[in-house]
From TrEMBL:
Domain Pseudouridine synthase II N-terminal as annotated: residue spans: 23-178
Catalytic residues identified in the record: D38 (nucleophile)
Record's function text: Responsible for synthesis of pseudouridine from uracil-55 in the psi GC loop of transfer RNAs.
NCBIfam families membership: TruB
Family statement drawn from the similarity comment of this UniProt entry: Belongs to the pseudouridine synthase TruB family. Type 1 subfamily.
GO molecular function, one term: tRNA pseudouridine(55) synthase activity
Provenance organism: Niallia nealsonii
Name under which the protein is recorded: tRNA pseudouridine synthase B
Record-linked InterPro entries: PsdUridine_synth_cat_dom_sf, PsdUridine_synth_N, tRNA_psdUridine_synth_TruB, TruB_C
Gene3D superfamilies the UniProt entry points to: Pseudouridine synthase
């Protein structure tokens, strides 16, 4: 069995928990997820099976869509609802839709974020959450991410209360911390804030309507129909440039040979998918680091 299984991850489970369960259900070991979702977050989690594990990173690197909720009035250690309160400030003014929309516009486009201490980012070979659990604060690397769109959900014009909450939808690049985005929204409104709810509704090309729950996977595996719900590994490569080759060149590609950069791909800087005349992805090639005008295999997807 091979392909991409669009899974709807439930709240209360880690991404690793999902992989562990699926290995038992599907009776296979070669399974990998495509980017960690926090336990309290539900949503789309593409799972790569068999040969598709080779392309997991391209799904991880693709854009995502989230629907979340910001609560303004207090912040937490984890930047979400699971943490301890660290700063409180009563909301004493009326928060209008126009005020929030102005903030969201400011945060749209390339922005810089500092990962939260409770995150899987590594510093000096150790994950930040390991430092956080020991009460150690370390300097964290600031990264640039892109917010493609950021809009409010629900119809409201004014919010009043000691704490207030509102929902939003965001399309963003890889590496974006929505928890941190929620904190930034609060700060720009003048208050401590945290992310109180979050659901991932899209990962790469896969959305909620494509997904199966773990229970549905078990049922379809038992009935022998699960493979009908798998997406081809080519779906993970939809954003990469493609070059179609004939059978003679395909033999060389499958053998991992270094090739001349095709004229049609002059100026392409990133990875290139070499595909058969039938559209099957055979390998991913990259520019040769020392031989100008040559490309070499990064991943062989289809061996002889």
């Amino acid at each position: 069995m091979e392909g991409i299984l669009p899974l709807w991850k439930p709240k209360g489970m880690t991404s690793h928990d999902c992989v562990f369960k699926l290995r038992k259900i599907l009776h296979m070991k070669r399974i990998g997820h495509t980017g960690t979702l926090d336990p309290e977050v539900d949503g789309v989690l593409p799972i790569c099976l068999g040969r598709a594990t080779k392309v997991a990173e391209y799904i991880t690197d693709a854009g995502k869509t989230y629907e979340g909720e910001v609560t303004i009035g207090f912040s937490t250690t984890t930047e979400d609802a699971s943490g301890e309160v660290v700063n409180q400030k009563e909301v004493t003014q009326t928060i209008t839709r126009a005020m929030v929309e102005d903030v969201l516009k400011t945060l749209t486009g390339p922005i810089k974020q500092t990962p939260p201490m409770y995150s899987a980012v590594k510093v000096n070979g150790k994950r930040l959450y390991e430092y956080a659990r020991q009460g150690i604060e370390v300097e964290r690397p600031t990264r640039e991410v892109t917010i493609y769109s950021l809009n409010l959900l629900d119809d409201w014009e004014e919010l009043v209360g000691e704490t207030i909450s509102f929902r939003f939808i965001v399309d963003c690049s890889k590496g974006t911390y929505i928890r941190t985005l929620a904190v930034m929204i609060g700060e720009m409104l003048g208050y401590p804030a945290h992310m109180s709810k979050l659901t991932r509704t899209r990962s790469a090309t896969m959305t909620k309507k494509d997904c199966l729950t773990i229970e549905e996977v078990a049922e379809k595996q038992q009935s022998g129909t699960i493979e009908k719900d798998l997406r081809p590994l080519e779906d993970a490569l939809c954003d990469l440039p493609k070059f179609q080759i004939n059978d003679t060149l395909a033999m060389k590609v499958r053998n991992g040979m270094v090739l001349e950069l095709p004229f049609e791909l002059k100026g392409v800087e990133g990875p290139i998918v070499m595909e058969s005349e039938e559209g099957e992805a055979l390998a991913i090639y990259v520019h040769h680091p020392t031989k100008i005008g040559k490309i070499k295999p990064s991943k062989i997807l289809k061996v002889l």
